[in-house]
Amino acid sequence: MNTEQFGKVAVLMGGSSAERAVSLKSGQAVLSAFKNVGIQAFAFDPAERNLFDLNNTQVDRVFIALHGRGGEDGTIQGALEYLGIPYTGSGVLGSALAMDKVRCKELFKARNLPTANFIVIEKDKPFDINKIIDDFGAVMVKPSHEGSSIGMAKASTVTELTDALEKAFQFDDVVLLEHWITGREFTVTMLEKAALPVIEMVTPRGFYDYEAKYQVNSTEYFCPAELTPEQTSNIQDMSLEAFELVGATGWGRVDFMQDSDGKFYLLEVNTVPGMTEKSLVPMSAKTHGLSFEQLVVDILKQTLGESV
């Protein structure tokens, strides 16, 4: 591999979102992988340096390892386009749409892709919490613009929903309430218009929350997931369609639930998934035959010969 073709690479990590801690771990893992294969790379934290400092570093391209707002929502992507610096992952539109859980759900619904029933609650607008519980029973509460399951909670009573909304509104003024699905959780890694092996996540915590992802050792992962060939093909095809639908490109992840009847439901699209030692994308890539170093280099290759 000719590492000189990449020039000088800035790995954007950290940032000021609620996912800063995870982003720092992802960025350090990516940076170490680049150094292992001889790519000239350095860390760049937009929370500590002005993004326009990139112009003074003579950087040739950027690997975005920023999660959440300010890094995964199109704002950094737009700034890099303004600066004329090639970057990894989705562009402005795909990043912004994928980060907005409400608009993603509306797109899925418009395309007749299977997704759980939902309603949207806004902080400063009235809503009938008793009716929500009567209509939906249990719900999953999600801030519309957060990732890593931050601010998410299950609620099946008026008291639980009141508490969950209070916490969710600390992160976002718009909150998505999805009908609770009891079943299995899956994710599909997307890499250059291909769907990699499906992963099933099994946790005793009730759902795959922040703690299950990053802080406990009780979560089990099965890759490839124990599904029939038809089910695997179905979930991968839906992932490709959903990824393209929101305008996502390059690499990412699409999450699913499967109910007790075996039906799959789209949850969301992630355009800058975690790249830590516990992250799902490297796990799927490894099953696909790619080492972590090969994975990050393949993602970086997407910036070659392209003008953003």
Automatic annotation (TrEMBL):
The keyword Metal-binding applies. GO terms for biological process: cell wall organization; peptidoglycan biosynthetic process; regulation of cell shape. SUPFAM superfamilies: Glutathione synthetase ATP-binding domain-like, PreATP-grasp domain. Its main location: cytoplasm. It catalyses: 2 D-alanine + ATP = D-alanyl-D-alanine + ADP + phosphate + H(+). Residues 105-301 form the ATP-grasp domain. It is found in: Cytoplasm. PROSITE patterns: ATP_GRASP, DALA_DALA_LIGASE_1, DALA_DALA_LIGASE_2. Pathway: Cell wall biogenesis; peptidoglycan biosynthesis. Keywords: ATP-binding, Cell shape, Cell wall biogenesis/degradation, Cytoplasm, Ligase, Magnesium, Manganese, Metal-binding, Nucleotide-binding, Peptidoglycan synthesis. Its cofactor is Mn(2+); Mg(2+). The keyword Cell wall biogenesis/degradation applies. Mg(2+) 1 binds at residues 255, 268. The active site is at 19, 148, 279. It is an enzyme of class 6 (ligase). InterPro entries: ATP-grasp (IPR011761), ATP_grasp_subdomain_1 (IPR013815), D-Ala_lig_Van_CS (IPR000291), D_ala_D_ala (IPR005905), Dala_Dala_lig_C (IPR011095), Dala_Dala_lig_N (IPR011127), PreATP-grasp_dom_sf (IPR016185). Its EC number is 6.3.2.4. Pfam families: Dala_Dala_lig_C, Dala_Dala_lig_N. One of its GO terms (molecular function) is metal ion binding. Mg(2+) 2 binds at residues 268, 270. Binds 2 magnesium or manganese ions per subunit. NCBIfam families: D_ala_D_alaTIGR, PRK01372.1. Belongs to the D-alanine--D-alanine ligase family. PANTHER family: D-ALANINE--D-ALANINE LIGASE, D-ALANINE--D-ALANINE LIGASE B. Cell wall formation. This is D-alanine--D-alanine ligase. It comes from Pseudoalteromonas denitrificans DSM 6059. The gene is ddl.
